[in-house]
Automatic annotation (TrEMBL):
Region of interest called Disordered, as start-end residue ranges on this chain: 154-177
Protein name: 2''-aminoglycoside nucleotidyltransferase
Keyword Ribosomal protein: no
Species of provenance: Micromonospora coriariae
Positions with biased composition (Basic and acidic residues): 154-166
Pfam family, one: Aminoglyc_resit
Keywords: Transferase
MF GO annotations: transferase activity
InterPro entries linked: Aminoglyc_AdlTrfase
Length: 177
């Protein structure tokens, strides 16, 4: 594991400590969610991606900024919360809720769009002694599959195809009918 990955893991531990003591729910998403599902660091990561409820974002930002995290001036806070912890990039995509309380996209042009059923109900992932809430494997697979369709300008990268293969290998086959 390289030094950036160690610093990213330290930032994940810090987020879990801060949000745990403040009772702010968060869920790891993206490549790190996959790694926590698999139980090890599988590849280098550019950043650390999370979900948080839109209503918790301001309080979360206040808590992390008080710990010397700094905002990413390139990203509008209306879309998501983007921060730096040293040289580690961290983003918190916002979650909303529909009338039935199900999670939706919480901001931006896709606000209100339903997110995969059960996405927030996955068991926590673990790397070493660190246990972290993550989005479900089914949601991780759906997002990796659909990004090139939802955003045609974003072609599937080789790492996305590798991630899909790793995730699919952990899903039991459907029962034979």
């Amino acid at each position: 594991m390289d030094e950036l990955a160690r610093r990213q893991l330290a930032s994940i531990a810090e987020v879990i400590a801060v949000t745990g003591s403040a009772a702010i729910p968060v869920w790891l998403r993206g490549g790190w969610a996959m790694d926590f599902h698999l139980g090890s660091v599988t590849r280098p990561h550019v950043d650390v991606d999370w979900y948080c409820w839109r209503g918790d974002a301001e309080r979360l930002a206040t808590l992390l900024l008080a710990r010397d995290w700094r905002p990413d001036p390139r990203m509008p806070v209306e879309q998501q919360l983007d921060l730096y912890a040293g040289d580690v990039e961290v983003s918190f995509a916002y979650l909303g809720r529909d009338r039935a309380g199900r999670p939706t996209v919480g901001a931006g042009s896709w606000a209100g769009t339903p997110l995969p059923a059960g996405m927030l109900d996955a068991p926590p992932g673990r790397i070493g002694a660190l246990t972290v809430p993550t989005i479900s494997v089914a949601a991780q697979i759906e997002f990796k599959q659909m990004y090139p369709i939802w955003m045609p300008e974003r072609q599937r990268r080789p790492k996305d195809a590798d991630d899909l293969a790793r995730l699919r290998a952990t899903v039991p086959p459907p029962p034979e009918g």
